[in-house]
Amino acid sequence: MRHAVSEGLVVLRQRAAVSVVLALALAVPVALAGVGLAIHTWLRPVVGLSAEKSTVAVLLYPHVDAGERHRWIADRTMEHPEWEISEVSSKDLAERLQRWFPYLEDLVNSGDASLPPLVEIVTEDPDAVTVLGERKEVLAIGPRSSIQQTLGRVARRLALIVGVVSGVLLAGACLLAAVWVHLELYRHADEITIMRLVGATEGTLRGPFLVAVAVPGVVAGVLSVVGTVVTVEGLSRLTTALGLSPISLPTAVLVLQLMGGVLLPVSVAVVTLARHSADAIEN
Amino acid sequence: MTKEYDRRAILSALDLQVEAGEFVFLTGPSGAGKTTLLRLLYAAEHPTEGEVWVAGRRVDELSRSRLPLLRRKIGVIFQDFKLLRRKTVLENVTFVLRIHGLAPREAHRRAIKVLRRLGLQHRQAAFPDALSGGEQQRVAIARALAYQPRLILADEPTGNLDADLASELLSLLCDINYQGATVLVATHDHAILESIPARTLVLHEGQIHYDGMWPP
After folding, report:
1. Which of A37, A134, B57, B207 has the fewest CB within 10 Å, making it most exposed?
2. What are the DSSP calls for A220-232, one per residue?
3. Which residues does B146 contact at the CB level (< 8 Å), separation at least 6?
4. Do residues A163 and B10 make contact, with C-beta atoms less than 8 angstroms apart?
5. Are B71 and A10 in contact (CB < 8 Å)?
6. CB-nearest partner of A194 from B42, B64, B84
7. Bridge partners, residue B8, by sequence
8. Looking at CA atoms only, how far is residue B84 from chain A in angstroms?
9. Residues with Cβ < 8 Å from A15, sequence gap 6 or more?
């Protein structure tokens, strides 16, 4: 362990610039991922709405009688088994008509008994219901999404974009770590060969390289935590000023960032060292 | 055992047994296969055919994880020294002792002792590149002897030493052999062969041409 630390620090001193670049390259995506997670947590109630099933109201012509309605519902259920279609009972009809079609308020309040029949379709894809607009029995189709659902979709896309950008940047940082370890292995190939010949174990040989990537990893973890705290604090002030709830930063996110900062480059180094065949080094 | 490179036999159907505690010279012209034979013994090479056994273990079938354990029983004096350039003379020796599990203080004590024995105590802080060929060779010898291995493989150990130092080294190897270690010295220097009465193997074109005391 002492050998690994002392030799690892020697490698770090010799490659100080690369170590700093590696630390920053890791810190930025880890911080971005942390901010993304905090925002996603903040938006979770809204994001959840977009994933829920929606109800779309379909207004039929008044001349479509009960028998035709039942057949129509049966046919649509056959065509779209993913839909849950039900007819609104006459008891609830007035209230539902006002809710889905506010412009029919006068008709509803007139006390006319011949209100148009209404069916409700529960679906995960409300936009697909528009296809019914072409059918001759259909008078009108109600609103297909609420503002919350639209916001939810935007939030989900935002989270996806932040996730993808973080992932790409992290992959780049991991590639940098792998290339660095690879180059250092070749730079120290003679030493590694000699150490093997005098009885050094793989653990003794790999230790310094693991220390050399773990230290920038720790620095990256700390930097990313600081960056995330500062950014989330700033965003939270902004949302509060806009009258929205403040953004909270879960402790788990910070712990994940610290662990990710260290474990990612160390895992990459472990894989790179394992792949670097001893035969290739011993030449 | 047989060892081939590009279908050219370096060692051909070699059948050799060295008993524990023996002192053996291995000689022959350049390219006879002396270094290859030593490399097979510390498992830096694998035979093309046949088996290599060291200290009761078949070394050509050892897994990578077991290899360090074998090599810790063998002290190898390399022809090209194989010193760690970034470490001082003292660190080159202590490093090996630390690998063998010695505490830092004990490793330091033993390294100083062996360096003193080889007349290198005044050069312990120097880096290998600052040493003469003879000094580098003595560091390589110090490193191989420091952990008192059961088997010593020396590849041209006197190649860079003057007559006095060469004689001193042979005397050192004899002492170690007397204490129970097996010593195998590859050399093409006939003066050395004649300085100590010992079993001598003459290799020629990958085969043993002579096995007995020297001179024949």
Report:
1. A134
2. HHHHHHHHHHHHH
3. B93, B96, B97, B110, B111, B114
4. no
5. no
6. B84
7. B5
8. 6
9. A180, A184, A212
pTM of the prediction?
0.68
Indicate whether A281 pLDDT > 50: no
Helix axes A202-241, A251-275, angle to 10 degrees: 150
Please state the rounded mean pLDDT for residues A221-242: 91
Residues in chain A: 283
- Of residues A152 and A66, more confidence is placed in A66
Nearest to A200 among B68, B82, B86 (CB): B68
Mutation to test the B interface, candidates A184, A198, A202, A279, most B Cβ within 10 Å: A198
**Which residues on chain A place their C-beta less than 8 Å from a C-beta of chain B?**
2-3, 10, 190-191, 193-202, 204, 278, 282
Measured CA to CA, the distance from residue B163 to residue A171 in angstroms comes to: 61
For residue range A17-67, what is the model confidence (pLDDT) as tens digits? 888 998 999 999 999 989 888 887 887 766 555 556 778 889 999 888 889
Query: In degrees, to the nearest 5, what angle opens at C-alpha A76 toward C-alphas A82 and A48?
Result: 30
The Cα–Cα gap between A221 and A227 comes to 10
Give the residue, A6 or A283, on which the prediction is more confident. A6
Q: Which residues of chain B have pLDDT under 70?
A: none
- Rounded to the nearest angstrom, the minimum Cα separation between A211 and chain B is 18
Instruction: Choose among B69, B78, B99: nearest Cβ to A204.
Output: B99
Look up residue B187 and give its two tokens: 């050399």
Identify the CA nearest to A12 among candidates A279, A273, A212, A271.
A212
Of B64, B71, B83, the CB nearest to A199: B71
